[in-house]
Specification:
5-stranded mixed beta sheet; 10 helices; alpha/beta; 325 residues; Nucleotidyltransferase, domain 5; 32% helix
């Protein structure tokens, strides 16, 4: 933040928007603050096509950008070839990761890495909204959760979404394994009704954005919190329109990812693997109970599930980045 922005920003509202695209759903959460006091907040779900941000979500984000100059967008990085440098003394790891092909960021003494080309490609899906201000590693989110919710023993933490899984083993602030896996191809949707929605869902590529947005931004909206929570100008999915996923169809894939990762952890000398006492699932997708029960039985390790509000966590991290915590 520049000097001028730092001077004037206290007089303006700050808006934080988190975007989470998972399987065929796009979730956005908006939180507006004035003098660090929340004045507006809402959460919405949209259906995606080909993993892109739907036009209705883009409209909301661009409208806030136009109305509030201090608007910040946050998302989580969901690519392969990312993880944690868990042994800084191992020259083999550092040689492979700390090259011109990788972005390495250190936070709280932990180094997170990701391949630059994949980051660049991943950010293309957000072209319709201009830019992402904060892109957070899933392993940073897991590490923060562990620090806030310490659990005895060496445990495997699984950040679970329908389209991806992030795994990390940590004990006493020491990380000994990390892995990220995409599972979009395993996601099965159970349709509650015909594919035709009661509102037209359009993609960014289908529009002349400037003309469409200019017409949209001229509409006079009531920006009160009560209005936004009950009658938002872009329709949310009704209960009978919400996307229903068959989590059982993906459960065997989750089991395989976990077991293969544990095998790698125990056999790879770099990891120096010792006994895993518990698997802690950070449930960011509200997985069905029967699917979780199946996973727990198949991995044959004590498993617990914790709710994980990814949309809110991203906003909390974005606020911390600009000193609004």
């Amino acid at each position: 933040m520049g000097i001028f922005s730092a001077i004037v920003s206290p007089f303006f509202s700050k808006v934080f928007i988190s975007i989470n695209i998972d399987a065929s759903s796009c979730f956005i959460k908006v939180s507006r603050l004035k003098n660090k006091t929340k004045t507006e907040s809402f959460f919405k779900e949209f259906k995606t096509i080909n993993g892109k941000i739907p036009m209705d979500a883009i409209k909301i984000i661009r409208l806030y950008h136009k109305k509030y100059p201090f608007t910040y967008i946050a998302a989580m990085l969901k690519t392969l070839a990312q993880g944690v440098v868990f042994d800084k003394n191992d020259k083999r790891i550092l040689k492979d990761i700390k090259s011109s092909q990788y972005q390495v960021i250190e936070q709280n003494g932990v180094e997170f890495f990701a391949q630059k080309a994949m980051i660049k490609d991943y950010l293309k899906k957000y072209d319709g909204i201009g830019k992402i201000d904060f892109l957070f590693s899933p392993f940073l989110l897991i590490a923060h959760h562990i620090q806030q919710n310490p659990t005895e023993g060496k445990n495997l933490y699984v950040l679970l979404q329908r389209g991806n899984i992030a795994l990390m083993i940590m004990q006493n602030q020491e990380i000994s394994f990390s892995g990220f896996f995409l599972t979009d191809s395993e996601v099965e949707i159970v349709s509650n009704k015909d594919d035709g929605m009661n509102f037209e869902l359009r993609q960014f590529d289908d529009f002349s954005m400037n003309e469409e947005f200019e017409n949209f931004s001229k509409i006079n909206f009531d920006f009160s919190l009560e209005h936004l929570q009950t009658d938002m100008f872009v329709p949310n999915l009704e209960e009978d329109e919400k996307i229903t996923y068959n989590d059982m169809s993906k459960a065997p894939t989750i089991v395989k990812v976990i077991l293969d990762s544990l095998k790698e952890y125990y056999q790879n000398p770099i990891c120096k693997g010792s006994f895993i006492e518990k698997i802690i699932f950070l449930d960011a997708c509200k997985i069905a109970d029967d699917a979780f029960e199946f996973i727990s039985k198949e991995v044959m390790i004590e498993s617990v599930k914790r709710d994980f509000n990814l949309s809110q966590v991203l906003i909390d991290f974005a606020r911390a980045e600009i000193g609004e915590k």
